[in-house]
Amino acid sequence: MEWNFQTAEELAAALRAGEVTSAELTDEAIARIERDDKAINAICVPDFDRARAAARGADQARARGEDRPLLGIPVTVKESYNIAGLPTTWGMPQHRDYMPAEDAVQVSRLKAAGAVVLGKTNVPLGLQDIQSFNEIYGTTNNPWDHGRTSGGSSGGSAAALASGFGALSIGSDLAGSLRTPAHFCGIYAHKPTLGLAATRGMVAPPAPPLPVDLDLAVVGPMARTARDLTLLLDVMAGPDPLTLGKAYDVTLPPARHERLGDFRVLVLDEHPLIATGSAVRAGVNRVADALVDGGARVERHSPLLPDLTEAAMLYRQLMFSGSVARFPVDSYEQLRTRAAGLSADDQSLDAALLRGMVLSHRDWIEANSRRELHRHGWRQLFAEFDAVVCPITPTPAFPHDHNPNPLERRIDIDGVEYPYFDQLVWAGLATMPGLPATAIPAGRSPEGLPVGVQVIGPMFEDRTPLRLAELLEQKIGGFQAPK
C-alpha cells in the first residue's frame, strides 16, 4: 500500500492496528524524498539516520504497549526551528554553520508525542519573503508548477506536504507564512491565536532561545486535512514551561457548532486597498456556495467589520516597526529622513511601511491602542458571526521572482500590477488583532493551480475555524496530490 499521502490520523490507526510499522513508513517517506525532492527542493536539511533510529524506537515503544498522539508518524520541521545536531540558519549565509544546543520547545513536543522527524524544510532569507529561496539551500519549487513559488516563509513545509514528504509539518506565521504556502500548494494550515503555542527556539541565529512573547508572530501546524491540523495543534498548544506554563494549562473551548447549518459566516472577497484576482474570488464564492447549500447563514457585508483600510495600515506599521530594530544607526537615520519627507496626505501602504520602520515608542503605544480597539470590534463581530471567510492572497502561486530588492517587485492581478508586499493585506486581517485563521483548499485556478481561502475565528476559539474547515472539506473536498 502507498502510505505517503495517507493522513496522520489514518497512519496512526494503521500503526495501532499493526498494519504497518513506523520503520516502514519512514523508509517509504525517505525513498520518496530521495526520488522526488531534486525537482522540488523542499527538504533542505535531511536527518534520515536519526529518523530511522527514532522510527525503530517508536516501534519498540508500541510493542511495549505505549501509545502517544503522533507515535511513529513521519513529519518535517521548518528550518527556522532549532533542532540539536542540525544547523539553524534562517537562510542567512553568515550563519550556515550555526548549530543550536537544544531543541525548540515545539520540536520537543513533537518528539514527546512520538513523531519521527525526517528533516528540515526550506525558508526564505531571514523568513522575510513570500517565496522560499536563499543562498545556502537554493529555491523551493511549487509541486504543481516548478516555475512558480511554493510560498513563504513556510514554503518548504507546504511543498513537502503536497509532495508526500511526511504527514505533518510545523511552520510559523507573521505575514501569512503558514497560510500563503498552504494556499499556493493546496494543503491545510492553521495560524493559532497569538500566544496560544510557545515559540521558544524558533529564533534567528545566533540569538539564544529565550521564552519571549512575540508580537504578531505565531507557530502553527500544517497538514493535508483539517482533522490533522487539530491533531497537531493539540500537541503544539500551551504556554512555555519556563514561564506561564508554571501556572497555567490550556483548555481550548469546543467549536461553537458541529453542524454546517448552524454556522453564521461573514464572507469577504473585496479589499479597499488591492484587487482580488478572479481565480481567488471564484474560490471564495465556491466556499460561500457550499456554506449556503449546507444551510449556514451567510452574509456578505456587516457594519460590525472593523475598518479594513485602517487595519492594513496598523498591521504594516506594527509589523515593520520590529523589522529594523537591529539596523545599523546610519541606515536607520536614512529611513527617518525618508519618513520625515512624506506628505501628511500620503496614506498609502508604502508610506505606512516607512512610517512603521521608524515608529517612536510613543507612536507604537498609540498604534497598539488602536489595535486594541480593533480587537474589541472583532469581539463584537464574533457575537454576531462565528467565522469570517476571505482570501489569503489575491492570486494563486506566482512565478519565481528573485529581484534582490523586493520593493521593486510587482504582483500581477488579472493583468494589473501592484506593489509586491501589498498582497499581505489579507494575511494581516487576522494577524494584526491576533486571531486564529485556518487555510483550506478551495479549488483550482483555470491554469490548474491550487486556490485556498482562510477561515478566521474568535480569539482562543481555534476549534471553531478548524471545525468549519473540516465540515467544508467534507462538502467541497480537500487536498489533492499534484499530477
Automatic annotation (TrEMBL):
Signal sequence interval, chain numbering: none
PROSITE patterns in the cross-refs: AMIDASES
UniProt superkingdom: Bacteria
UniProt cross-references to Pfam families, sorted A to Z: Amidase
SUPFAM superfamilies, per the entry: Amidase signature (AS) enzymes
Domain Amidase: 24-464
Name listed for the protein in its UniProt record: Amidase
